[in-house]
Design a protein that fits this description.
The chain is mostly beta strands and 447 residues long. It has 2 domains: 215 residues, Beta Barrel (Cathepsin D, subunit A, domain 1), CATH 2.40.70.10; 178 residues, Acid Proteases (Cathepsin D, subunit A, domain 1). Helix content is 11%, strand content 34%. The protein has a 6-stranded antiparallel beta sheet with strand order 1-14-13-29-30-15, with no helix packed on it. A 6-stranded mixed beta barrel has the order 3-4-12-5-11-10. Strand 8 and strand 9 form a beta hairpin. The two termini are 29 Å apart. It comes from Raphanus sativus (Radish). GO terms for molecular function: aspartic-type endopeptidase activity.
């Protein structure tokens, strides 16, 4: 189930929104899953405990990005590993639900009565029979056909489109495809409604889903995601700014939707805004970039990873789109063959510390000092057309007073550019020009 994992759980509270039919702009506040404001906050866990839990979710989540043929589609993130929650209302009259917001999923779904099988949920379960705006989607409709053949079915006796998803942790959901009015609460006091939104009404759901959530809100790049359905109303543009302080009570992160969400002055030296092309690949759910090299200080190392996992017989395609950018994964995962040389270059560049093992066995390169201050190298990610210079907070994580670890690990599967590397950048997605932009800023002060 992704996944846009520092891992972040959030509610959306719209700050502004025009009521006109023209493209609109609005900003939404994000609350980190480990913030005291989060419903998942546990005051008894230590910062190190929270980090290790986040790293485990990163590793589990990464396996959900591996797109291989199967009976049911394997989607974004693990059931209990959702890092973002979104507070919405659904139906008429509106009913409040809390669902995992996932940049690695498309179809939004919530648990629905009457249940054949529903997992335990803290809140009430949506009852479609109590809503005047619920409408089933026919089997031969364009909405139904937007699902892959592995995802969809048909109740021919009722002419109702069916969906089915299974996830890498054996969690699953099945139900009816329908349209409904979905609303998001506005800070001005008036909810913003999106009638006719396609979603899944799940009556057969199980696995490791968290009791806090009602289902999944899809924010991926596919046709049925919420981002795609809003489409022209937000000019096919959105951005987010994730604060490295967002796990604290004073930290704030935001997501912006609409024309004004994309920073101006792209690729102009004075604006410090750089952009790189999005690469169109299957599955369209994910946002693919091309990583050409990584520099450790002044040492530039060509990136040898590829997406041959997806296209084993097409060398030309595999060079492009070799990494997925994902705001729901904490760590950055890099192709293991490349990582050996990259890790060695980092180890050579670190000063004032010796390399040690991560006590939890999760992170590959950790460094421990005595009384000396640890000197960390600058890491630069060289995407096509965009050199993104990372601060130490983007590339390393402080595990204790005298130990830091690199927040990048090797993988034998698909590479992922995680959210630690994206902290304190305004990351903009222009789905019309098919580009992703980066602008360094203090995301704590974006509202």
């Amino acid at each position: 189930m992704t996944t846009i994992t520092l891992l972040i759980t959030f509610f959306f509270f719209l700050m502004t929104l025009s009521s006109s039919t023209h493209p609109q702009n609005f900003t939404v506040e994000l609350i980190h899953r480990d913030s005291p404001h989060s419903p998942l906050y546990n005051p008894h866990t230590t910062p190190t405990d929270r980090l290790n839990a986040a790293f485990l979710r990163s590793i589990s989540r990464s396996r959900r990005f591996n797109h291989q043929p199967q009976t049911d589609l394997q989607s974004g993130l693990i059931g209990a590993g959702g890092e973002f929650f979104m507070s919405i209302t659904i139906g008429t009259p509106p009913m409040n639900v809390l669902a995992i917001a996932d940049t690695g999923s498309d179809l939004t779904w919530v648990q629905c009565k009457p249940c054949q099988q529903c997992y335990k949920e803290n809140g009430a379960i949506f009852d479609k029979t109590h809503s005047s705006t619920y409408k089933s989607v026919p089997c031969e409709s364009s909405h139904c056909n937007a699902l892959s053949t592995n995802e969809r079915g048909c109740d021919e006796s009722k002419n109702v489109c069916k969906y089915r998803y299974s996830y890498g942790d054996q969690s699953f959901t099945k139900g009816d495809v329908a349209t409904e009015t979905i609303s998001i609460g506005s800070a001005s006091g008036s909810p913003v409604s999106f009638p006719g939104t396609v979603f899944g009404c799940g009556y057969d759901n199980g696995g490791t889903f968290d009791e806090t959530g009602s289902g999944i809100i899809g924010l991926g790049g596919g046709q049925l995601s919420l981002i795609s359905q809003l489409g022209s109303s937000i000019s096919n543009k959105f951005s987010y700014c994730l604060s490295h302080k967002s796990s604290t009570v004073n930290g704030t992160s935001v997501i912006n939707l609409g024309t004004n969400s994309i920073p101006s002055g792209l690729n102009e030296p004075s604006s410090h805004v750089i952009s790189t092309p999005l690469v169109d690949k299957e599955p369209k759910t994910y946002y693919y970039l091309t990583l050409e090299a990584i520099s450790v200080g002044k040492t530039k190392i060509p990136y040898t990873g590829s997406s041959s996992y997806y296209y084993p017989n097409n060398d030309d395609v595999s060079v492009k789109g070799n990494i997925i950018i994902d705001s729901g994964t904490t760590l950055t995962l890099l192709e293991s063959g490349f990582y050996d040389g990259f890790g060695a270059a980092v180890e050579e560049a670190v000063t004032g510390a010796k390399r040690v093992s991560d006590p939890q066995g999760l992170l590959s390169h950790c460094f421990k000092s005595g009384s000396a201050e640890i000197g960390l190298p600058e890491i630069t990610m060289h995407f096509t057309g965009a050199d993104v210079r990372l601060s130490p907070l983007n590339a390393f994580v402080k595990m204790s007073e005298d130990m830091v670890c690199m927040s990048m690990i090797p993988t034998t599967e698909v590479a992922i550019y995680g959210n630690f590397a994206q902290m304190d950048f305004l990351v903009g997605y222009d789905l019309e020009t098919r580009t992703v932009s980066f602008q360094r800023m203090d995301c704590t002060n974006t509202i």
